[in-house]
Amino acid sequence: MTLTAANGGVLLAILIMALVTYLTRAGGVFVMARVPIGPRVERFINAMAGSVLVAVITPMAVNGDGGARMALVATAGVMLVLRKPLPAIAAGILTAALWRLIAS
Asked: Where are the membrane-spanning stretches (predicted)?
């Protein structure tokens, strides 16, 4: 099945993606409500969060421009020093913005 931009194809694609996202989130809540959270499950959940983060960041590090790479370095550096995510995120955003301001 292919969707064209004409005749509401874009709207249909957005609705399908929203439905899949909702079902994924609701399904996760439904499943995890029935799983006892012991030390083993907690370790799995913590490891899964890190692997998802790496899966999101790796393509940006490989295919991104200089601003994306410098933002990644700044975020990692601040996180290693302060161990607080909010300042690290702010440093990454600020670094990318400044890099793109200077480079343009």
From this structure: 12-32, 44-62, 82-102
